[in-house]
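Morning, I've got a small favour to ask if you have a moment. I owe you a coffee for this, so here goes:

…
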Amino acid sequence: MIVDDETTAEMISSQIPIISSLVKGARDIKVLRSASEVPAGCGTEPVAINVAVHVIVKGKVNAADEIAKLEKKSAAAVQGKDKLEKLASQANYETAIPAEVRAKNAEKASLGYLSRCLAFG
């Protein structure tokens, strides 16, 4: 995993035995300080603002299948965004839809929400 600050790196390093006992199949856990240290063939998952986990997937994952899944998720996310934008453009949207629902719809239509759905969906 890449960690970009010393305090977090030290904390995670001290927890490696616990992390390895909780992660099935984990053989080698390292705390890295830069992207240049990440081995080729890794998948990446951000877990905090300053921490990303890299897992070697080369030879274990069919890239074409994964790309197809992501394209399907992306199309569904864009379709959902378009539906929300169409709803929001209706003349009575501001008066007919409660403020808290409008706020949730605005968040769902945002790029940040869509990228989280693609990453974790």
In short: The chain has a mean pLDDT of 83. The two ends are 21 Å apart (CA to CA). The chain has two domains: 2-56, 63-120. The longest helix spans residues 63-88.
